[in-house]
Design a protein that fits this description.
eight-stranded mixed sheet; 445 residues; globular; FAD/NAD(P)-binding domain; alpha+beta; D-Amino Acid Oxidase, Chain A, domain 2; 14 helices; binds flavin-adenine dinucleotide; 23% strand
């Protein structure tokens, strides 16, 4: 897909065609009305994704509605009434049989879907103003005196752009270049590696997806067949929910050694593992979990890395979005949603009639001012929530009382989903852009 626009306002290069990069191209296509030429550079030879199920929080659905793709997404997602989405928390580290701890009554409904379906839908909505370039792994960029940017790729080719957006995930080359080339009075040199290098959380994540029939044949009454379940235990928990209209079960199992957080992870970050390795940590868990894990197909193990809190998301005509600037723990199922929300705010700002090549830095600053605090808040609270799911309940004198306290804390953690909305954030960012350019009508203040 490639179209040369006669007189684009400017050229935007998006590095990375993951959920975030695609959502940005779609937003620019919808709101820039062919004013912006988009080059989307992807390291792989196709638009693809690893992993299976994905949760889209209800606040992110507002963005999908604005982008006109909500109906399409709804068709491939699973949500009430097709299965009870109310997450059921179980105390599961009791080998003879756990029990339901509590149900989380949600006032805001998220949707669950297969990750590939989300990617395929975003791909369908890519605008004709977007040129896709595969096998283009960005290694670094240089700034020219004119302000434009030279992109360098692993195949030794180069390209030029006016604006660069790093949507290149947790290992982001754009993030690395930003922090390695920032003035030393902006960033403390001793902290550069802290910002450029991903950090291991001490958690290993086992992921698998398999036909629901396999589990119903083995254990017809398994709670995971119909429900969204979080099986909790000490230092580990398992999340399971049906996807693809209930025909598949998505399982994500976490094992955490808190003392290893922040230490280097030795070995491959993502690898295929044996069925035995997936089952081994959960020997002290209830039979429902053991049966669930027995059904694993092609299980993989991920060493869970995050991006440390960054002091900035934008510098001059370069910005970061999605996992490139806030890769977070997945306990809220919010990483992709936050990437989509970044894309929406950033895309609308770049498409704004006030944004010209000269005012791009002001637009990127408005994006940063709105999105940095919120996405970092979600990342911090997500990590805290994961620690609550791994609570050592068996060590307390009064287990019932402790469970009750912990339940209330977990419920409070989820209130973030109702905080503001990405649409409000976009309006706030627009006000900031207007203020910085000095065009805001005093009556509107
Ligand atoms: C176990 C687990 C479960 C999760 N579950 C959920 C969930 O339920 N809900 C949710 O919202 N989030 C979830 N997440 C998080 C979510 O997957 C990420 O936050 C999301 O995929 C981020 O999207 P992104 O586009 O920013 O980055 P990515 O998805 O990482 O995409 C980056 C893209 O950039 C490309 N790329 C990388 N480097 C370069 C380069 N140098 N040059 C060019 N291209 C490059 C990559 O090939 C890729 O296509 C989960 C994460 C994990 C680990």
């Amino acid at each position: 897909m490639s179209l040369s626009l006669a007189n684009p306002k400017f050229r935007v290069a998006i590095c990375g065609a993951g959920i975030g990069g695609l959502a940005l191209a779609v937003t620019l296509g919808k709101f820039a009305d062919q004013d912006i030429h988009i080059d989307l550079y992807e390291a792989h030879d196709t638009i693809t994704t690893t992993g299976a199920g994905i949760t889209i929080p209800s606040r992110t659905s507002e963005v999908l509605k604005e982008l006109g793709m909500y109906e399409e997404i709804s068709r491939v997602s699973t949500k009430p009434p097709s299965f009870s989405h109310v997450p059921k928390f179980r105390r599961s580290n009791i080998s003879q049989g756990g029990f339901e701890w509590f149900q989380q009554i949600l006032t805001l409904m998220s949707s669950n879907m297969h990750r590939q379906h989300l990617m395929d839908t975003l791909k369908q909505y890519l605008p004709s103003s977007c040129s896709l370039h595969f096998n283009k792994r960005l290694t670094r960029y240089d700034k020219q005196l004119s302000g434009s940017l030279i992109l360098h790729f692993a195949d030794d080719s180069t390209s030029t752009t006016d604006v660069l957006i790093g949507a290149d995930g947790v290992h982001s080359s754009v993030r690395k270049t930003i922090f390695e080339t920032l003035d030393r009075d902006v960033v403390d040199p001793s902290k550069i590696r802290h910002y450029t290098d991903p950090s291991w959380t001490g958690t290993l994540v086992y992921r698998t997806v398999f036909p629901a029939k396999k589990l119903s044949d083995l254990d017809p009454n398994n709670v995971a067949l119909k429900d969204f379940v979080i099986f909790c235990g000490m230092g580990k928990h398992v999340v399971s929910y049906p996807v693809s209209q209930g025909t598949l079960i998505n399982v994500v199992a976490f094992v955490t050694d808190g003392e290893k957080a922040g230490t280097p992870f030795e070995g491959c970050w993502v690898s295929s593992v044996s069925h035995e390795e997936v089952q081994e940590p959960y020997q002290d868990f209830e039979p429902a979990v053991k049966n669930l894990l027995k059904c694993s197909e092609n299980p993989s193990r991920w060493a869970l890395h995050v991006v440390n809190e960054l002091p900035l998301f934008a510098s001059d005509r370069v910005a970061l979005m999605g996992d490139a600037c806030h890769a977070m723990t997945p306990y809220f199922g919010a990483g992709a949603g936050q990437a989509i929300e970044d894309a929406f705010v950033l895309g609308r700002l770049l498409s704004h009639p006030l944004t010209t090549l000269d005012s791009v830095p002001a637009a990127l600053k408005a994006y940063q001012d709105v999105r940095l605090p919120f996405s970092q808040f979600v990342a911090r609270e997500s990590a805290r929530t994961g620690r609550m799911y791994d609570f050592d309940m068996s060590s307390t004198a009064n287990v019932q009382e402790e469970l009750e306290i912990q339940k209330e804390k977990i419920l409070a953690q989820w209130e973030w989903e109702g905080k503001d909305s990405p649409i409000t954030e976009w309006l706030e960012a627009e006000r900031k852009l207007q203020d910085s350019i000095g065009v805001r009508d005093d009556c509107a203040r």
